Amino acid sequence: MRSISRFLLISLLCTVLSVTLVASLWSYRDSTHEVEELFDAELAQMARVLQSLLAVQLKRTQLSQLKDALQYRPYIDPTIANPDNTDDDNDEASALGHKYESKLAFVVWNEQGDELFSSSGRGSNLSFSKQPGYGDEALEPQTPPSGQQQQQQQWRSFMLHDSSLNLWIKVAQRHDVREELTGEIVEHTLLPLLLMIPLLGLLIAFVVRRGLSPLRQLSGQLASRTPDHLKPLSNKQLPDEITTVVDAINALMQRLEQAMERERRFSADAAHELRTPLAAIRIHAQNVQQQLSLQQLGPPQQIIDGVDQMSHTIDQLLTLSRLEFDTEQPQQPLDLSRLVRQISAELAPLALDRSQRLELEAADDCTICGNSSALAILIRNLIDNAIRYTPPQGQVQINVESRPGPNNLEQCYLSIHDSGPGIAMTEHGKVMQRFYRLADQAINGSGLGLSIAQQIASQHRATISLSDSPLATTGLSVTVCFDRIADNI
């Protein structure tokens, strides 16, 4: 079951159609039974009316003269070529009679089976038998359509015997009269139901969609949740069946929020607990270095470098942790060139200590939308990496420019070129992973700088690409592409 709404819609429509079909069959069966009873009663009534009329007539006329005394003149519509064919679209009734008279017949016989009179000779085909009651027989039409083969017609008859008059009276009716009435009853009963099925389908679809709307609302609430937004879901105006699900989800989100809060506290506490002894170790190492310097012995520089490396790794881990948990940082328009100038000025002393040439070319029209604190970390990591891995007397060049991108949309590019050892093309995808460091790497590092930069770039819908540096045959170029916005925003 891939869709609850589709399952409910199909199931309900099939149920309605099935019930309608059963109701149709039941209505047809019941209507047929009632019509049969009604017409059978009419046949018996007609026979008894004839019996009463004959009883009155026989008081005036002898039985031998009855055939000449009684005459029946049926109504014949002059517009109908074949009176026995009443399936045309002419009006069924008029002021002079009804065309269905041709579907009714009667015959009166004496005790010897001699026909005394009938309905204009139409009853002459009715069989004579001294068997009172109802019966069915098939008769040939007296005036079949020209050019067509004769087809027998089914008749329903009632035979009445009058022992005082010594007469047999048979009244008959064609079966198609009954079938037509039954069909009319069923049609007029079921046609409104059939016409209502499309409307019922629309109503069922509306009810199903309305009934499942709480699920769509719940799905929308869940889709809007982020790792740092685990507030309880609203269960207002929700049905009882979904309220239990929402309560279970809220309990799970509460446990997740508590677990993540414990992780945050652990990161902060670990950083605090590690920074304190590291700071003490560094101070003691500096004191030892001063004492050793007075004794003209080599300074314990390796201890200080190790402490600095550990402190740098801790700072990078905390930065990465904050970025992962704080995914919805407020962003606003800012000048990328100005921010790059500030970070470059802060890191310029580090380049001077290594006798490196740090150059900056920044355009004045690079306005992007972003978080200044996060982008400062990105820029600082990239420039710091370039300075760290560039050897003394090397060169680091920073460019900020605006130009059309692949889709002819104006974009801002931050490029940092260095003359360091570079990174092989096969390693470009791997260096973005956490703690990944190249083999035989002489420079100390945490392996987190490019991972942090990638995390910040993705939060700003920016892309980072690596390429060969134009400054040296072994250098590296890191380019970050931002979407540029108008300066007056």
What does this protein structure show overall?
- The chain has 489 residues and is α+β, with helices and mostly antiparallel strands.
- Helices cover 48% and strands 17% of the residues.
- The chain is built from 8 helices and 12 strands.
- The chain has helices at residues 4-58, 66-69, 175-223, 240-294, 301-325, 336-353, 372-389, 449-459; strands at residues 104-110, 115-118, 133-139, 153-162, 167-174, 332-335, 357-362, 367-370, 395-404, 410-418, 463-468, 476-483.
- α4 packs antiparallel against α5 and α7 (372-389) runs antiparallel to α8 (449-459).
- It is rod-shaped, with a radius of gyration of 52 Å.
What value does the average pLDDT take? 76
Specify the number of helices: 8
Low-confidence residue ranges: none
**Number of extended strands:** 12
Rg, alpha carbons: 52 Å
Write the layout of secondary structure elements.
Blueprint lengths: L3 H55 L7 H4 L34 E7 L4 E4 L14 E7 L13 E10 L4 E8 H49 L16 H55 L6 H25 L6 E4 H18 L3 E6 L4 E4 L1 H18 L5 E10 L5 E9 L30 H11 L3 E6 L7 E8 L6
Parallel strand pairs: 7-9
Antiparallel strand pairs: 1-2, 1-5, 3-4, 4-5, 6-8, 9-10, 10-12, 11-12
Helix pairs in contact: 1-3, 4-5, 5-8, 6-7, 7-8
Short recap of the structure:
This protein has 489 residues and is α+β, with helices and mostly antiparallel strands. It contains 8 helices and 12 strands.
Keywords:
rod-shaped; 48% helix; five-stranded mixed beta sheet; alpha+beta; 17% strand; 489 residues
